[in-house]
Specification:
alpha+beta, OB fold (Dihydrolipoamide Acetyltransferase, E2P), four-stranded antiparallel sheet, 4 helices, 21% helix
């Protein structure tokens, strides 16, 4: 993997544009009305915040708030919906979000690691022995090999064991949460072969040093 080229590619386009759509039907009243306005996403600090209020949607005589899902700047306001009834999924804003250091690392790792994906939409859990090891020593301590029983798949009150399929290595990243429904094709884990561990760590360290985040 050409680390330098990969970093330069991300630096050339360090933003993502996220669409914010109406979560349900109702009449839209815009709070943020112009492009270029800076917004904040939800905070998980000691004083939790929902993020910047973008609009309200009147539904069954109740105003439901619509908050910014992440930090960035408003790129587009679809103001033609102001005061009008919209269906769920109608685009109301787009936000330009500058990638954080951690987001850049995650994006690179998804290219560098072997991703083992969910074969179906379901809830996934590590088998008890692996789960115990992860809780005690972290997921990086788990070495996997092809055919090894790794997950319990829970769907429609049915549980089956899912073996790992892929190269031998250590679990470097876990992409799902406990009791979460994971969509088909979404990564469950990222595996790093032992002989590539130093390269992967070099990528992570380099991003931590070189990536500059806006204030």
């Amino acid at each position: 993997m050409d680390i330098k080229a990969l970093l330069e590619e991300i630096k050339a386009s360090p933003f993502i544009v996220v669409e914010v759509a109406a979560p349900h039907t109702g009449v839209v009243e815009y709070v943020v009305q112009e492009a270029g306005v800076g917004v904040k996403g939800p905070s998980v600090s000691w004083r939790e915040s929902q993020g910047t209020l973008l609009a309200t949607i009147l539904r069954e005589r109740n105003k439901k708030p619509l908050y910014a899902p992440l930090k960035g700047k408003i790129e587009t306001v679809f103001s033609e919906w102001s005061g009008k009834f919209v269906e769920a999924g109608t685009p109301l804003f787009t936000i330009r979000h500058y990638l954080t250091r951690d987001e850049v690392i995650k994006a690179i790792l998804k290219q560098a690691l072997y991703l083992f994906n969910a074969p179906e939409r379901a809830k996934y859990y590590f088998v008890p022995g692996i789960d115990k090891k992860i809780k005690g020593a972290g997921h990086e301590s788990v070495r996997v090999k092809d055919g090894m029983d790794l997950f319990i798949v829970s769907r429609m009150k049915r549980e089956t064991v899912l073996p790992y399929s892929g190269p031998q290595g250590n679990i470097y990243a876990v992409y799902f949460q406990h009791n979460e429904n994971v969509d088909t094709g979404r990564p469950l884990i990222g595996v790093c072969p032992k002989d590539q561990l130093s390269l992967i760590q070099d990528v992570v360290n380099r991003v931590r040093v070189e990536w500059e985040e806006p204030g």
